[in-house]
Amino acid sequence: LETPSKPGVRTFRLASDGVLPLVRGDFASVLAGVRQRLTSWGALRPPSETLRVEEGQSGAIVHIGIPVQPLGRVARLMVQGADASRARAVLRSAQLQPDEPLDPARLAQAQARVGNLGAFDRVDLFSALELEETPGNWQEGDLVLSLRERSPWVFSSGFGYDKSQGYHLGFGAQRLNLGGMGRTLDFGFRAGDATIRNPTLRRWFPTGTYTRSVDMYSVGYSDPFFAPDVLSGLLPDQTQLLGEAAYIEERRSLYLLRRRRLMGGLEWQMGDHWHIQAGYRFERSEVAAAPGVNIRDEDLAVVARIPGRAVISAPYLQVTRDLRDNPLDPTAGSFGVLRLEFANQAFGTSSNSSFVKVDARQQWHWPLGRRANFGVVSLALRAGVARPTASTSEELPLAERFFAGGPGSHRGVEPDALGPRGAIPRLDDAGQPVLDDQGNPLFQYLPLGGQGLALASLEYRFPIPFLGSVVWGEVFVDSGQVYQNLSDVGQRPRWPPLRTALGLGLIFKIGLPLKVEYAADVKRILGRPRTPAERDTQLKSVLISAGFQF
Predict the structure, then answer these.
(1) Cα–Cα distance, 219 to 185 (Å, whole number)
(2) Distance (Å, whole) CA 410 – CA 518
(3) How far apart are alpha carbons 167 and 163 in whole angstroms?
(4) How many CA atoms, within 13 angstroms, populate the side-chain half-sphere of residue 224?
(5) pLDDT band at residue 38, thresholds of 50, 70 and 90?
(6) How confident is the model at residue 228 (pLDDT cuts 50, 70, 90)?
(7) Which residue has the higher pLDDT, 546 or 190?
(8) How far is residue 461's CA from residue 507's CA, in Å, rounded to a whole number?
(9) Average confidence (pLDDT) over 41-57
(10) Checking DSSP bridges between strand 120-127 and strand 143-149, what pairing results, if any?
């Protein structure tokens, strides 16, 4: 309440609808809250409040008087240990301005922002008066930012596996704090089964029915503060520049997909939970027969649908809203991503490869019991639409289609096997069709992907008694479908019903949650008839993966 007779004095009135019992513990909590708020406003020392109690019509009225408080403010900032890092990068990250109140929460945020530069092993922020040898010229409000820089080079290696892409070995090198400005240069190499060709690893870590291996060579660059003077009024100060160049080689049983990609974008945060990313992707892809495989050109065209090379030149926009309590193992909150991409001939896209793509994902997590003692219920939804816009083609390039099935997708279907399939005749070394005992040609089936995607997943994760901190169980239902061509909506061959599966799993919480899962088609559980495609593409064995749906 404003007090005209006392300028600069603020009066707060807290009233309840009914009578509250005057309990010492509750009253002490109120006083502690008042002191904490005053400290966050910059009070130099704990306030000495005055208390007055008077009788009211319905009970006692308590008056808390706080005299005018001397405020502590930021004066000077001394940085120690930043030998290779430039002062501009450190001060820009800290965002501490002279004469700001010494708010503990704001100081903690400044310390975290400097740590997020990735250039330091340790970041300490404290008052200069706490130094063991305090010079006589230090005063209240002077701060010390004590840093310990990391080695500029970081090398890593690892092994990964999931049933959709098989096993792979990864190697990486990072050059941190490039130019002393917190910039990072990443070098990555990923080798799959097509490169390693180890029969033992292939047997221990198999893919699904449709064999797949992914190799990748990449170079990435990031600048945590990219806001040129000409854009300073349009972009937030803390805008990150991202860039990547990559060569990706994906091998299937019959074909080889090569992708050469360049990407660049800007990312910034709006508020506490919103992230915006806007950028541009240039990619050239081509489909060819896999080495050592005989396949006719007309059969390869069934898979590729668009002959020759496809050049994609597309700007994109991605909006993310993250309210999860833990991004690796969420027990509460929600997470959503919306990505828009537009590839047009005006930007340099091939005449037969233009498209518009929308991919939306949303997940919710609800804890059961205090601190999820009784488990977590999660719901995940994903919808995707990609429509060709070129007048010369009604198809999408192979690399731009939606695929589903397997870990992180529909767990009742073999990896990538949800949706339309193509039947390719098997050929021998002489290029002749392979026949069965009755003289009929044998075919090999391959997933073709589609222009539309719909997925939904509902799961309940729960701690197993005596093992809950390490091992959890889960029960889940996955449902979804991939649609080949959205222009034929309403025609049954192109608009198949959703496939639904019920499954069980174990979650091993060893850092990133590791999951072992198995699901069966609901039709199979109920004994209902299934199509040959549903029987062929049902999950054959357990799935091994990490993380959570979508």
Answers:
(1) 7
(2) 11
(3) 8
(4) 22
(5) confident
(6) low
(7) 190
(8) 8
(9) 71
(10) antiparallel
| 8 Å CB contact between 160 and 168 | yes
Tokens of 318: 């991605």
| Closest of 162, 398, 135 to residue 288, by C-alpha | 398
Q: Is 204 helix (H, G, I), strand (E, B) or coil?
A: helix
pLDDT category at 492 given cuts 50, 70, 90 is: very low
Secondary structure of residue 10 in the 3-state scheme: strand
The residue with tokens 């600069």 is 8
Q: How far is Cα 187 from Cα 221, in angstroms, rounded to an integer?
A: 9
Percentage above 90 pLDDT, the chain = 43
Coil/strand/helix, residue 487: helix
- pLDDT confidence of 472, banded at 50, 70, 90? very high
Q: Read off the pLDDT of residues 340-363 as tens digits, 9 standing for 90 and up.
A: 999 988 888 988 899 999 999 999
Are 475 and 460 a contacting pair, CB within 8 Å? yes
Cβ atoms of 411 and 517 within 8 Å: the answer is yes
Helix and strand numbers (H, E) in the chain are 8, 23
Structure tokens at 244: 């990547």
More confident residue, 278 or 205: 278
C-beta of residue 76 within 8 angstroms of C-beta of residue 94: no
Q: How far is CA 107 from CA 45, 180, 392, 397, 476, in A?
A: 17, 23, 59, 51, 43
In the numeric block, the tokens 């050239």 are attached to: 284
Structure token digits, residue 490: 């309403």
- Residues belonging to the chain: 550
Contact call for residues 500 and 476 (beta carbons, < 8 A): no
pLDDT at residue 291, rounded to an integer: 84
CA angle 281/176/260 to nearest 5° reads 25
* Alpha-carbon distance values, 190 to 104, 171, 260, 408 (Å): 44, 7, 15, 20
Least confident segment among 3-7, 301-305, 480-484: 3-7
- Pairwise pLDDT comparison (61 vs 186), residue with the higher score: 186
Average pLDDT, the chain: 86
- How far is 221 from 71, CA to CA, in rounded Å? 43
Q: 464: which DSSP letter?
A: P
CA distance 402 to 310: 16
Cα–Cα distances in Å, from 340 out to 95, 247, 266? 33, 23, 15
The secondary structure of 258-318 as a DSSP string is EEEEEEEEEEEEETTTEEEEEEEEEEEEEEEEPTT----HHHHHHHHSS-S-EEEEEEEEE
Measured between alpha carbons, how far is 266 from 225 in angstroms, rounded to an integer? 10
Assess contact for 426 and 434: CB atoms under 8 A.
Answer: yes
Q: Is the pLDDT of residue 63 over 70?
A: yes
| pTM of the shown model | 0.81
What pairs with residue 483 in β-bridges?
452
